[in-house]
Amino acid sequence: MIAAIAAGGVAVLTLPPFSILLLVPVAYATLLVLLRHLPVPKAAFVGWAFGLGQFGFGLSWIAESFYVDAERFGAMAIPAVAGLSAGLAMFPAAAAALFAGVARRRAIGGATACLVFATCWTAAEWLRGHVLTGFPWNLAGYALVDYAALRQPAAWVGSYGLSFLILFVGTLPAPALLTEVRPRWSIPLLGVGIVVATGSAGVARLQLEPPGPPGLDLRIVQGNVPQQEKWAPENREATLTRYLDLSTRPGSVDILLWPETAFPGFLDEDSGARSRIAAAITEEGLLLTGVPDRVSTDEGTRFFNTVQAYDQTGRSLTGYAKHRLVPFGEYVPFRGWLPIERLTEGLGDFTAGPGPRTLAFPGVPLLAVAICYEIIFPGHVIDDLFRPDWIFNATNDAWFGTSIGPEQHLASTRMRAVEEGLPVVRAANTGISAIIDANGDLVARLDTGETGVIDAALPFAHPPTLYARFGDWMLLVLVVSCWATAAAGRLRKATSLRKRDT
Q1: DSSP state letters, 476-494
Q2: Element (H, E) at 94
Q3: How far apart are CA 335 and CA 339, in angstroms?
Q4: What's the predicted TM-score (pTM) here?
Q5: pLDDT tens digits for range 410-455
Q6: Which pLDDT value is given to residue 209?
Q7: Which of 64, 120, 125, 322 is catalytic?
Q8: Is the dihedral of CA 400, 402, 403, 409 positive or negative?
Q9: 260, 330, 374, 419: which one is catalytic?
Q10: Preceding peptide of 183 cis, ω within 30°
Q11: What is d(CA 26, CA 10) in angstroms, rounded to the nearest whole number?
């Protein structure tokens, strides 16, 4: 279990911001070796220990959010991260137990053991992304985010499919080192072949001729307002002034993009603020900004985390309400039973919106909105029936300081661009604001702690990808195809041996 905890910690080093790809076999091949020949209960504990190391290190940045209001929540930081890590580690535990059960029952070895391990682990990752509210953070496939050609297969099989491929290839050194196959070079050769094939396919996708950008000039504004100061009433004027000063810098701007809750109040109820904002919007221009919203109903007032659109007259055109809310950050699950305050300021829990939505404005390419946390969910970011031309991700990573959290968040955002074949424009209060093209490349970025703007043209969109069309069904096709190929190979080998014997 100690070795498994260490291997789990090493797995984090394979992911952004570290992206040390050579550590993939060190982490996952080690785990496979540890699980070999273990009974199911012990394998589950070893898998849980791996997850504890993986999530304990990989999610340590969450503690930063508790220290924003240290007087009220600081004491909860370490217990919260430890509890979350222990809970999420149940998914690696389940994968390890399933692998051990199959391995012992079938006495598998060689590349087949790697195939079983990759299948079990990917199934557990998929469940982690869907059970309860889901939390698909730091998927194994994100080790490829910083490698342009190798991340492109996500356009066909998604991030879960990338996890399957990297786990299969990454564990192949285990049977080779254990001398389970002869000749020993055959398994490494298989791994090299898969890497070359996927990399070549990725290079081919990168060569796609762009139809050209829509010619829309964007300005992303990163205000860099400290989270401790953001919601203080006496700071509201300074915050608005900062955003207006940055927005009115010289330059050609069609769309202004402000981050999540950029205006610390109910903008649609503040005519004075809207008038000042309208003066910063060019003729025929548009502002998309994150703001809280409230609606009175018969059951009481409901609060929403929204992105709203305003034109040069200060008129609100439409809005989008966040539909995937952060537990304990934007609402408290089982509030009637849990006497816990949520971490964010506000008058009450947020209410979830209806789901992904495509917004249409005159002269503007169709757009989808994903607010902060929503961008981490593969296949659940856009309206599949009304495909947009780009995605606007409004976020606020000021909660997490200069930790590794914002870089991990950006990695998820880049993978959504590849999966959907759409550019993603990211506006952060602070964290990392960026423009990401449809291949997942960073066109421009502002780092954590920087105050400023990004002026750039909107990148082009690709035609709908296979993953955009079929979602996680492509993962099933990939897994079944790999198993069918393996079964066909074993059948051919068995047939050849029978013929030789006869």
Answers
A1: HHHHHHHHHHHHHHHHHHH
A2: helix 90-106
A3: 7
A4: 0.94
A5: 999 999 999 999 999 999 999 899 999 999 999 999 999 999 999 9
A6: 76
A7: 322
A8: positive
A9: 260
A10: yes
A11: 8
At 231, list the tokens: 């919601």
Q: Produce one character per residue of 201-218: b if its CB has 16 or more CB atoms within 10 Å, e if not.
A: bbeebeeeeeeebbebbb
Residue 234 near residue 405 (C-beta atoms within 8 A): no
Residue 372: predicted pLDDT:
95
Name every residue whose Cβ is closer than 8 Å to that of residue 377 and which is 6 or more positions away in sequence.
129, 134, 136, 324
Least confident of 127-141, 372-386, 435-449, 480-494: 480-494
Query: How many CB atoms are closer than 10 A to CB 251?
Result: 9
Name beta bridge partners: 256.
219, 287
Residue 399: the pLDDT is: 87
Convert 47-77 to b/e letters by CB count within 10 Å (16 or more is b): bbbbbbbbbbbbbbbbbbbbebeeeebeebb
* 3-state SS, residue 237: helix
Retrieve residue 73's tokens. 């929540």
Q: How confident is the model at residue 337 (pLDDT cuts 50, 70, 90)?
A: low
DSSP state of 418: H
To the query of whether residue 322 is one of the catalytic residues in this protein, the response is yes
Q: How far apart are CA 22 and CA 24, in angstroms?
A: 5
Give 359's strand partners: 367
Which residue did the predictor score with more confidence, 367 or 335? 367
Three-state DSSP at 377 gives: coil
Count, residues in the chain: 502
Whether pLDDT at 181 is above 60: no
Q: CA distances (Å), 418 to each of 355, 422, 436, 438, 463, in order?
A: 21, 7, 10, 6, 11
Comparing CA positions, the residue from 451, 434, 76 lying closest to residue 239 is: 451
Instruction: Please say if the pLDDT value at position 162 is more than 70.
Output: yes
Query: Is 3:32 a contact under the CB 8 Å cutoff?
Result: no
Q: How far is CA 500 from CA 413, 493, 494, in A?
A: 54, 11, 10
Spot the catalytic one: 114, 125, 372, 407: 372
Active site residue 372: yes
Beta carbons of 480 and 496 less than 8 angstroms apart? no
